[in-house]
């Protein structure tokens, strides 16, 4: 699935719900959230049918389940199990806020999941309450512990990098990475917040984070064997203890290398987080449609992908759908 700039799309992110048990200020509004009615959501069977077709006919190799909060969707391990049975699908990942992870980690592991990214912006309970508008830090930490105990080989922690907030979290999260052996990745704040309060001035840039971590903990250097096709630039502390990743979506966009597309919880294909258009495939998945028709529609959407997201240009328009509703 190649777009008009020659980018090959092998990486599909799937939102399984727009519901969430947190209200992170950079993603969701504080209240009055209108969630999709349940009947609008793709069923696990519809999602599996879509992925199976994309893998067999279109070269998709990796999928990641996200949301909203994927673990609030009942029995999401059943979906993992169905996806895990698809021949030639190389990777299944899940991105979660971790609150329900302690309860579900074992089921997810048994269903075949090995890769979990847990979002955690702070290790301080009061700040956690401030950022997420909920008091659930302990559950998230228990989720991480459970995932480690069960033996998930690929665990990462993600934190959003915001000026005036993340400076204070860098050192404790840096030490957490060193002590736990879990890579912590900082994601530059993107204009996808429901309250539309994003401003370039509010982004804490990678360069500054590297400087703070290097000054306060130990110098960082680019990792010796960087991951291919990852939006994250990996660094390691020069004393060999701990890995930090930076996703520099604003200061160093990786659009020219982007191999991702998205399926929203109600069955729309998006060729970019920031696209203003989307393509419905739910009607096709709910009918006994010809597979070629489905592929044609996805291909049309991918071919229309723009060269880049243009966050840094004056003409940038923030999409109406915030992160939780697209599937981050
Ligand atoms: N609820 C799950 C979670 O928080 O991990 C999955 C969905 S969440 C939308 C996926 C990721 O998007 C999280 O790591 C979150 O921190 C990140 N995110 C949300 N809003 C963001 C924003 N405005 N800029 C950058 N990252 C954001
Ligand atoms: Fe929920 Fe994840 Fe958005 Fe936080 S970032 S509000 S946990 S969807």
Count of discrete alpha- or pi-helical segments spanning 4 or more residues: 10
Helix content: 25-40%
As a percent range, the share of strand residues is: 15-25%
CATH architecture: Alpha-Beta Barrel
CATH class: Alpha Beta
Structural class: alpha/beta
Q: How many domains, in number, for the residues? A: 1
Q: What is the overall shape?
A: globular
Low-confidence stretches at least 5 residues in length (pLDDT < 50)? none
Structural Rg:
19 Å
Which oligomeric state applies?
A: single chain
Keywords, separated by commas or semicolons:
12-stranded mixed beta sheet; 328 residues; 31% helix; binds iron/sulfur cluster; 12 strands; alpha/beta; TIM Barrel; binds S-adenosylmethionine
Please sum up the structure shown.
The chain has 328 residues and is α/β, with parallel strands linked by helices. It has helices at residues 44-58, 76-84, 101-110, 125-132, 137-150, 167-180, 206-216, 282-286, 291-303, 323-326, and strands at 11-15, 62-66, 91-96, 115-119, 154-161, 183-188, 220-222, 232-237, 243-247, 260-263, 268-270, 279-280.
Fold and architecture overview:
With 328 residues, the chain is an alpha/beta fold. The protein has helices at residues 44-58, 76-84, 101-110, 125-132, 137-150, 167-180, 206-216, 282-286, 291-303, 323-326, and strands at 11-15, 62-66, 91-96, 115-119, 154-161, 183-188, 220-222, 232-237, 243-247, 260-263, 268-270, 279-280. It has a twelve-stranded mixed β-sheet with strand order 7-8-9-6-5-4-3-2-1-10-11-12. The longest helix is centred in the N-terminal third of the chain and has 15 residues, at 44-58. The chain is globular, with a radius of gyration of 19 Å. It binds S-adenosylmethionine and iron/sulfur cluster.
């Amino acid at each position: 699935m190649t777009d008009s700039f020659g980018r090959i799309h092998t990486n599909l992110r799937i939102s399984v719900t727009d519901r969430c048990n947190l209200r992170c200020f950079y993603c969701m509004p504080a209240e009055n959230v209108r969630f999709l009615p349940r009947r609008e959501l793709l069923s696990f069977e519809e999602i599996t049918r879509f992925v199976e077709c994309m893998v067999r006919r279109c070269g998709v190799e990796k999928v990641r389940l996200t949301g909203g909060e994927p673990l609030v969707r009942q029995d999401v391990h059943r979906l993992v199990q169905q996806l895990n049975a698809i021949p030639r699908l190389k990777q299944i990942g899940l991105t979660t806020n971790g609150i329900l992870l302690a309860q579900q980690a074992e089921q997810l592991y048994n269903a075949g999941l090995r890769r979990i990214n847990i979002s955690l912006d702070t290790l301080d309970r009061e700040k956690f309450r401030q950022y997420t508008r909920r008091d659930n830090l302990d559950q998230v930490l228990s989720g991480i512990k459970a995932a480690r105990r069960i033996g998930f080989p690929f665990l990462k922690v993600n934190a959003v990098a915001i000026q005036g907030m993340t400076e204070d979290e860098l050192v404790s999260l840096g030490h957490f990475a060193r002590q736990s052996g879990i890579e912590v990745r900082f994601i530059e704040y993107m204009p996808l917040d429901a309250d539309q309060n994003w401003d370039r001035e509010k982004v804490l840039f990678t360069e500054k984070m590297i400087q703070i971590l290097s000054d306060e903990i130990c110098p960082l250097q680019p990792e010796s064997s960087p991951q291919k096709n990852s939006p994250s630039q990996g660094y390691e502390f020069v004393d060999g203890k701990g890995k930090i990743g930076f996703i520099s979506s604003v200061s160093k966009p990786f659009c020219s290398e982007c191999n991702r597309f998205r399926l929203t919880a109600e069955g729309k294909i998006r060729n970019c987080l920031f696209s203003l258009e989307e393509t419905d495939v739910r009607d096709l998945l709910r009918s006994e449609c010809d597979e070629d028709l489905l592929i044609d529609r996805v291909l049309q959407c991918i071919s229309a992908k723009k060269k880049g997201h243009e966050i840094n240009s004056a003409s940038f328009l923030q999409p109406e759908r915030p992160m939780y509703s697209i599937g981050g």
